[in-house]
Amino acid sequence: MLLYIIGLILIILSLFENKSKFCCILLLLYMIMLMAYSYGNADYSTYELYYTLYGNNISFSTLFSNNGLFKTMCYIFTKFGLSYKELLIFMTLLGFYNLFSAANKFLINKNILFVLYFLYPYLMDITQIRNFLAMTFLIKGCSFLIKDGNKVKSCLLFCIYDLIASLLHVTFVFYLVFLLIKFINKKNIKYIAPMLFFIEVVVFKYIQEIISALTNIDKTDFYFNENISVFTLIVIIIYFIINIVIVYYISNKHRNEKWINNIYKINILMVLTIPVIYHSFEFLRLYRNVFFLNYICVSYMCQQGFNIKKHNLRNALIWNDSNIVLLNIVIVCLFSLYLFIIHDYLNTVFIPAFEMNRLIFKI
Question: What's the whole-model pTM score?
């Protein structure tokens, strides 16, 4: 119960003291502690098994095999006499460094950003730690792609970071499609993305074969064995639309910030994930992995216009555009938290995050 209460207090403090670096540090330390010392979640024992398996002798070529960087990290940590627990701490610290340094390029105040990330999908990232670390390299790469004006430099840096992410989790090869944002303007992207979507639907059979080649046939059969229901698909499409509309609204309010327009274009390109999500709900993580960019947009808008009156309880909130956008994204986050974590993974993801921690509850 202790960690639930601490988390709730830090979320409230970080929202109301949204310019306080002290509150931001406390929230970050709390999040790092929850992740770095977690155990007992759905994937923990699997990663311990992988650590033991990959800790044996491996060749140099392993680095460039499926999830090769993760295998190599397991091998290196084993050779130094360390356990998976130490690797988990390392991956957590490296991941949060990537996120913080990426956010630092756009934001002065990061409290709201990490509150939104905490609400969703942070708790799932605690469980899917390999995907988390790969996601942070993707976000780091995107920070160069969307911000830097030099096309060659920004594309090259993005490709390097996405390659690192792909060596951790092969699905991150997909995000190379983001390179299109450097060559397609905001007006044309909404026409080109649907065209690519329909091409993808037509050639999906061949896409499955490519996925099989990158992973293995058994894994492909597992992911594509059963389609989601039509109702679920409609909910997912509405979910996409809401997120895109929020980012589109922010991009229109801050037209001079080209990097926000680029994040909008990224959200449009993420429509390309709908066909694979239809075939396997597991691939919703492809969209989830870019939410941190959306949260940067919201946080930037709040940084410009969000205002909380500390000494006037009657007018505690000034309801300007920033407040309304923040309220909407919080609702989306809470909806995501319930539908994608609590509803299906209460006992394997949500509860272990708060009730199974080696630092607080000694084991």
Answer: 0.91
